[in-house]
Amino acid sequence: MGGMKKVLSGFTALATIASVAVPAVAQADDVTVGVLVPLTGELGEFGKIVAGSVELGVKQINEAGGTKCGMLRTVVADTAGSAEQAIREATKMIDTEGAVALLGPTSGAMVALVDLAKRKETVVMSPYAGTITLNEIGGDYIYRTVSSDLGDGEASGLWLKEKGYKKVAFLVQNEESTISPAQVAQERLKDAGIELTDYVIYNPGQPSYQAELISVLANEPDAIYLAGGQESGVTVLKEAAAGGYGGEWLLTADLAVPEVFDALDPRILNDKAYVEVAQADKSLPEYKAFEAFHKAETGAEPGPFAANSYDMAMLVALALEASDGCTGAAVNSMIRDVTEGGEKVSSFADGKAALADGKDIDYEGASGPLTLDKSGTPAGAYQIMKAVDGAWVDEKFFPASAFE
Amino acid sequence: MIQSLLLSTLMFGALFSVLSISLNLQYARGGMINFGTVAYFAAGAYAYAIFTQEPPSGLDQYAFGFDLPWWAGFLAAGVAATLFALITGWPTLRLRGEYLALTTFAFAEVLHSFLLNERRIGNGSVGLANVERPDLSFFGLDEQIGYAVAACVLMLVTAWLFNRLLASPYGRLVDATRDDETAAEAVGKDTTRTRLQVFVISAIPIGFAGALYAMITTLVSPALFTAEITFFVWIALVLGGERTILGAIIGTMALVFFQELVRMIPFESVRSAQIAASVEEVLTGVLFIIVLRWQPWEKMKRRKGA
Predict the structure, then answer these.
(1) E strands within A87-154?
(2) Which residues of A touch B219 (CB under 8 A)?
(3) Does B274 contact A112 at a Cβ distance shorter than 8 Å?
(4) pTM across the whole model
(5) Which superfamily is assigned to A150-280+382-403 in CATH?
(6) What is the DSSP code (8-state) at residue A365?
(7) Which residues form the signal peptide (chain A) (predicted)?
């Protein structure tokens, strides 16, 4: 009797755990899209924004009747910012779930997924992976809806020059997503004749970065360019303030989330920290339409890369609609075609109708024009935001034309 | 879904079985507690990646990439693990019991820290991605099947060789060295040399397994080679029962199966994926505890015996 009780209590415990996580079952006429994002770790805040925006896009697509291959279905997995986890989850999404596209990996994961994407003929697309490594190896099964870090670094260089700093130090986390913009920005800094006092690369996951900060602060820079993740970056900012640093900051996109102000005393950032992020031109009607939709659905303003994420869902759906098949190879064959030459459309419903009429389409995204270059990358604009009263507010906008 | 679960269990199960079989040789037969197993695995994986990787370009921070074919990298993995076993074995094997365990653990941590901080080896925390791998899609079958077969072959060859070795007179020397060193030395056996030989011989397949792991994941980075792997293999060995090669394999397969089972569940919303991310570790831990507490294999064995 006692044994039976133990068995039953064991089963109850397992059933309770299993009921928390209800598995998804694919319908026969669905087409699966994997959402592969960091929901925890250094870029955890971005992952939530990206996954949420892809879900919004999928909802809109399904409300418009879905694609010719069926309704879009998403499966979501957390990469925790690890490339290994990304490969593992991607393999599972493709082999087990039959995903035709994987949306949302960060720079490091994108680079690690190149081989798998080509081998498994599955499109992998990112809304924020600006790494310049993809300038070389992207373009076939590997795409992004954000411009390359060449623009990001260029914008940083322009801003640092405009601010008139004489001495700038670089603190860079050793990740693909942070090294890439820092490398470009560093070159622009040299071109502008600004003295680079230090270029320190640090490993993420450390409890303290004081050793790195001591050498940086000793050279008394006017500003520090911090390319750090959402965990390490916050620690660096706190420790620099505690170490008596009173200069200004230019932070990279990874820190452009409001949660930064919750994680540290806003006075550390207010009026002396700037963050630079790839940003849609907010005056575009496509962006305004997306913004209104986002607000209506979630009650909140779109976060960083939300428009780029929404566009990924649109591109995959339109490519499926325009192609002959329902596979990753079909998406890959048409994804460029739907972004250039033809009738301009700005929603899935319009695109679907135009394709049904036998027209060629050019999708104008919420994040801007999405004409993809050889490496599968669009041109993009950048926004500098300033920390004011515990929030990021727009300071200066660099349109895509600024980098031509 | 079940096919995918079985395939990944077979692939990773066979791969990690190579580690547990080697550990079985070192610990159950050689009497050496090695808490640095992951280091030989990492040495093999990194050697494979460095030998097959193209020379550095763009954002790469590593200094060497020899762009050699996969088999050269595979051989290099064995050599790297052997060298690392010699370097770590020579000074540490004078130690016994928990002292040896702590020293090997320290060596593994030193290697991990070195790979993390010396970016000229393998890009530091970024690691080396898109590692070269041979095309193993035989007869039009999926590549995963090819890699599962390759892992099984490596496991079976290792098991067969170690079995032959231990069944030979050399096996009795190993046992004698473990049971009574003084007695073994009294009959003219060099026990220090035997211990080092066992240590090095068992590290070679671990190096090869590291190379195969790099081929399967197409990635090497310090985050992949933490002490978690060492403890995973130890738990598998304890689970399957010490002293038998079959026990080591069954224990590892069962552990990998549980892990893959937990990972197999798909999630459609951000919230459920977030819960899954946090629940996965807890669930795996609970399964470990259940299995270790009730030891179903031991019960099965006893029933079979009765």
Answers:
(1) 101-103, 123-126, 142-144
(2) 83-84, 87, 112
(3) no
(4) 0.81
(5) Response regulator (3.40.50.2300)
(6) E
(7) 1-28
